[in-house]
Amino acid sequence: MKVLVINCGSSSLKYKLFNMEDESVLANGLVERIKLEGSVLKHEPLGKEKVEISTEIPDHEVAIKMMLDALTHPDYGVIKDLNEISAVGHRIVHGGEKFTGSVKITDEVIKSLEECIELAPLHNPPNILGIEAVKKQIPGVPMVGVFDTAFHQTIPQKAFMYGLPYEYYKNKGLRRYGFHGTSHQYVSQRAAEILKKPIKELKIVTCHLGNGVSLTAVKGGKSVDTTLGFGTVSGVIMGTRCGDVDPVLITYLMEKENLNYEQINDILHKKSGLLGISGVSSDMRDIEEAAEKGNKRAQLALEMFEYMVIKYIGAYAAAMNGLDAVVFTAGIGENAIQLRKNVCEGLKFLGIEIDDEKNNARGKEIDISKQNSKVRVLVIPTNEELMIARETKALVY
Ligand code: AMP
């Protein structure tokens, strides 16, 4: 059985074709700059040369068609016929409160997704465009939607509510939703496998530290709290997003600097975080390099990032009344050796002890804790696409 996984953004489309017999990747690729000048498809077929095709790509339908043509191309394709694709899994950013798990896509589901647009105006529309385009190009192929928010629908109400008037939750759905759910689900399940313990018995904090950052408290395999909320800026500072700020600062800034909705949104999402603090870059590698050379603001950005990760791990250990494992994943979590060391040193009081030699690893699955550490510390490369492929297979068969 072959499952195609699609992640459709506003101007990009990522895809991966899996052979689910052994979960191997047959091809993966990326269409960039859809609707813009310089659009390109980059296709990597298993065992063959990479291909890049630069041509006009005016919309998502054309992008999907190009991807399907690449997958079946006589020279650089990996399947002979589109019939070989048994199912398509779509990453969908927001499922609101309606979707508590992955779902087989029907016309009714598409309608419900449209109702969630208000909650994710930038992300859900391209997700829906991707679904419609696949439906047109390969009609009849079963499709599954896998939501970034669904894993967090188990968060109890006391943790997902904000202290605003209750009506805003009831009438407008203002609450914590959380994101990166597929990643947190994948690494927490993998952690249980590595630790050879039933996930039901484990209390884990999963740290997805990438361009976007979120930490999740996973108790018994279920998300019980997470740092991203209604939107995608809360919690730890990120590449360009601000993390937790006193909400009064926002109204204060709007008033004093005469900022409108777009301007303040731009500051919170694009001009803050590592970039805003350091003035150097949003990329952790650049921050580390500048900090090493003595740049004070880069050092501060790094310290803030580490401090907030430590703080949330401590908070979530309290929220779960215990902690068995911490998992580091995504670009920073998988690669930033010194940062992992500093975070773990700040958590010694919880009985966390890591082995420096084991920690000297990048991008690979490894238990970096010392034998006698009370809490296991794992590095697990995330694999959201595989999780989506598994969910798709499970719902279709
Ligand atoms: P992601 O969003 O998961 O692709 O992660 C992107 C982030 O990972 C960026 O901030 C990168 O700087 C960071 N990153 C990738 N490789 C490394 C590395 N070797 N050391 C530190 N940070 C890294």
Distance between the termini: 10 Å
Binned, the helix content reads 25-40%
Name the CATH superfamily assignment of the largest domain. ATPase, nucleotide binding domain
Count of all domains: 2
Taking Cα atoms only, what radius of gyration do you get, to the nearest Å? 21 Å
CATH class of the largest domain: Alpha Beta
> What is the overall number of helices?
15
Which compounds are bound in this model? adenosine monophosphate
Largest beta sheet, briefly? Answer: 8 strands, mixed
Strand order of the largest sheet: 5-4-3-2-1-6-8-7
What does this protein look like?
Helix 1 crosses helix 3 and helix 10 packs across helix 11. The chain folds into two domains: 2-147, 2-Layer Sandwich (Nucleotidyltransferase, domain 5), CATH 3.30.420; 181-384, ATPase, nucleotide binding domain (Nucleotidyltransferase, domain 5). It has 15 helices and 14 strands. Strand 4 (40-45) and strand 5 (51-54) form a beta hairpin. The mean pLDDT is 96. The chain is globular. Helix content is 39%, strand content 20%. Strands 5-4-3-2-1-6-8-7 form an eight-stranded mixed beta sheet, sandwiched between helices. A six-stranded mixed beta sheet has the order 11-10-9-12-14-13, with helices on both faces. The chain has helices at residues 60-72, 107-115, 124-137, 157-160, 166-172, 181-195, 247-256, 261-270, 273-278, 284-292, 296-320, 330-335, 337-345, 356-359, 384-396, and strands at 2-8, 13-19, 24-32, 40-45, 51-54, 85-92, 103-104, 143-147, 203-209, 213-219, 222-226, 325-329, 366-367, 376-379. By secondary structure, it is of the alpha/beta class. Bound molecules: adenosine monophosphate (AMP).
